[in-house]
Protein: Inositol polyphosphate multikinase
Amino acid sequence: MFKVPDHQVAGHRASNGVIGPLIDDSGNFYKPLQNDERGSKEVAFYKNFALNSEIPDQIRKFFPIYHGTQLIEASDGSGLHPHLVLEDIVSSRPNPSIADIKIGSRTWYLEASEDYISKCLKKDRETTSLPLGFRISGLQIYGSKESGVWKPDKKYLKNFTADDVRLVLRKFVSSNSLEDSGKEPDCSFASTVYGGSTGILAQLLELKAWFEEQTIYHFYSSSVLIVYEKESILKGMSSGATVKLVDFAHVIEGNGVIDHNFLGGLCSLIKFISEILTYVPNNTYKAFPKKP
Amino acid sequence: MFKVPDHQVAGHRASNGVIGPLIDDSGNFYKPLQNDERGSKEVAFYKNFALNSEIPDQIRKFFPIYHGTQLIEASDGSGLHPHLVLEDIVSSRPNPSIADIKIGSRTWYLEASEDYISKCLKKDRETTSLPLGFRISGLQIYGSKESGVWKPDKKYLKNFTADDVRLVLRKFVSSNSLEDSGKEPDCSFASTVYGGSTGILAQLLELKAWFEEQTIYHFYSSSVLIVYEKESILKGMSSGATVKLVDFAHVIEGNGVIDHNFLGGLCSLIKFISEILTYVPNNTYKAFPKKP
Structure:
């Protein structure tokens, strides 16, 4: 009944002796509750969010649907363990391309322990979080039936520079992304996936408008997941371009202040995506041609 | 010819043995160059900004006009010292109310020394910079000819909480701001100073739109100065509401990335100001009535 999801790109993956998320055939995603307070904090967030009447209806679609918690057999065989039961966003798609983008130049918050703060601050400084306001923490790019899927490991992503991020966000929407030809990514799916009234950029801008207003939550160490289906586009169907927020173990109360840390990082990501849409190829490879 | 400005609210003030800025009668503000690299960095910024053709014309008004550098007698009597010659924004106004608001939850940048980073991080954590994305680092509120001016000292401002910031931004535009009556600030100048098509909020939004696009500079430890003239309003004249960016000793190159740290803080300040404009007084004092 339960199985290990095929398309998980970040977080602990279930394997021998390691507890990880599970899925079922009904479109549910079972995320094991972390034993420390992170588990209970994430449950508290989902409960609060589900009942909060101040969340605009059009914003709810950016969050996984929450179906409560459930005791199920843990993936590591250690017995019954409480799991969050969530909407399965990606695992049910046949060949999704997925990027897990941790938003915010700061993944820690004042109320956390000094140990946690130093650990996070170190990671934020070593990755693109600090310079860019976000970091790519998980990635899976589907190429084609022949070339398969490119799923770089965490260590590779950790060492990304700003230029790597630019390149990979272009590869993400390219038909030649898995070729090792040294060619520039063609970005042939950019206008379909990133652009348009239902594309990734439009969704991120909708989310941004909410973050300019909302003072209920501050999201630390949460991710924006961007997902689409290359095969669907090739068949002339919808790209299935979707933006979802995930990972709420470090959400704290906003207390009447906007989440300027998340908002700043989100605006930075929006700028990266919008520059891909306005990118004009050139003889010399210049990712960001200056305006005249 | 040179004199110590009356209305300086932040930074080192010229006094016996302390070097500080000077003004003249022609509307110039002389800011002594700091001896370390901060001085040369600030000059480099002003020079680059003046010549940079990518700065939109309507954005230049948010920056003090730069007239070069000049060797003049230092205010501490120590002899000739190089000074930045800038437009005198506030000193020439008769009775300005001024807030110096340091923008950004982070006042340090990766390239700085470890010592500087720890010092800044500590200050950011101890003030409202981290929770709010900005801190009020200088303040002068003009009351009336009778009540005079309220100019709290730095130590007082340093201990501000989020609620203090909310209150003082309301006092800033109130006719009863200097009364110690325990009354709520009346915000009677809010719509004139913060609101309207030429008010502070409109100017901040114009600045925000630029920060969503510009990837030329990252402004660390820079301030937004907001200024207006209470007496002018009382005489039925323009409020003179003005927004200026100041303090560029820690501006670094943007390298194609937006200044998400400044933008986030600016959005937070915008939210604080806009909530004062939509504030509806109530029986019970609630600074931020929740939307129904």
Summary: Residues 22-87 of chain B form one domain. The longest helix of chain B spans residues 260-277. Confidence is low (pLDDT under 50) at residues 283-292 of chain B. The interface with chain A takes residues 54, 105-106, 110, 125, 130-133, 162, 166, 212-213, 215, 255-258, 260-261, 263-265, 267-268, 271, 287-288, 290-291 of chain B (CB under 8 Å).
